[in-house]
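User: Hi! I have a protein structure encoded as tokens and I'd like to know what sequence might fold into it. I'm fairly new to this, so please keep things simple.
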């Protein structure tokens, strides 16, 4: 490459241009310095206002932080409460379902009981008639029982309805099952006594009005014998339509005492001739 010779005129013009630019820059800086006034120091009021604003800003941030913390805690408590309520609701729904099932079972049983009650009412009237007849026959039977047996069944016989009660109120006060059980209880005691031969110590009133200690031998509910006063007093008892009747049988005192001794003292059993009276 060949270096071209520098033109003296062009170089002089460039130097002149640079000098002019430099002078213009110095002049512009001087003008700018003359036009801008010096910065004034901040006043105390402005400083206090800025400090107050900063304090309010810090306080606001603290309030926001506290509110945010309280909201987070409240939200957690509400979530726990909601979970608890949902659990209680689920439990109540389960109980409700169980109760509905129980109600359905109760309704079904009620319908069954109503149907059973209807069937029982169908047979109640005939059954009431049967029980009433049994009670009447039992009252007649009580008249034919010995005094000791009547005393034994008295707690049951007193519960028999009064046939003379107005409109059968006494009978209606007791259920059919209770009335039937009373009759059965009396008949069981009578049947038990009738199958046994028992010996009892009693005080017997003689035809002359005197009272004497005797030993009575009951042969079921139809016949009885007593002896006492060292074999001088004896008698026979038997059931009648109007009640139990006793008659003197002093002539048979020895035989009656032998029969009693077989049961009480274990004497050898043998045939004994005893008077019998059947009404």
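Assistant: Happy to help. Inverse folding works backwards from shape to sequence: for each of the 279 positions I chose a residue that suits the local structure. Here it is:
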């Amino acid at each position: 490459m060949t270096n071209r010779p520098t033109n003296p005129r062009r170089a002089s013009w460039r130097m002149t241009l640079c000098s002019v630019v430099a002078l213009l820059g110095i002049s512009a800086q001087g003008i700018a310095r003359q036009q801008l006034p010096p910065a004034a120091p901040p006043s105390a009021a402005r400083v206090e206002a800025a400090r107050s604003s900063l304090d309010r800003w810090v306080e606001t941030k603290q309030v926001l932080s506290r509110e945010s913390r309280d909201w987070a805690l409240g939200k957690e408590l509400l979530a726990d409460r909601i979970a608890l309520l949902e659990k209680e609701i689920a439990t109540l729904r389960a109980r409700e379902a169980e109760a509905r099932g129980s109600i359905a079972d109760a309704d079904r049983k009620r319908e069954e009981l109503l149907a059973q009650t209807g069937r029982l009412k169908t047979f109640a009237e005939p059954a009431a008639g049967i029980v009433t007849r049994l009670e009447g026959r039992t009252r007649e039977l009580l008249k034919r029982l010995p005094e000791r047996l009547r005393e034994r069944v008295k707690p049951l016989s007193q519960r028999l309805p009064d046939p003379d009660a107005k409109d059968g109120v006494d009978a209606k006060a007791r259920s059919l099952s209770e009335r039937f059980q009373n009759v059965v209880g009396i008949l069981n005691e009578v049947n038990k006594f009738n199958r046994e031969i028992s010996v009892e110590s009693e005080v017997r009133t003689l035809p002359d009005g005197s009272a004497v200690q005797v030993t009575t031998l009951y042969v079921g509910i139809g016949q009885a014998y007593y002896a006492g006063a060292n074999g001088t007093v004896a008698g026979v008892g038997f059931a009648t339509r109007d009640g139990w009747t006793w008659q003197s049988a002093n002539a048979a005192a020895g035989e009656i005492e032998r029969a009693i001794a077989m049961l009480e003292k274990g004497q050898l059993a043998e045939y004994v001739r005893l008077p019998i009276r059947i009404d």
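A useful reference point when you look it over: Residues 44-143 form the longest helix (100 residues). Feel free to ask if any position seems puzzling.
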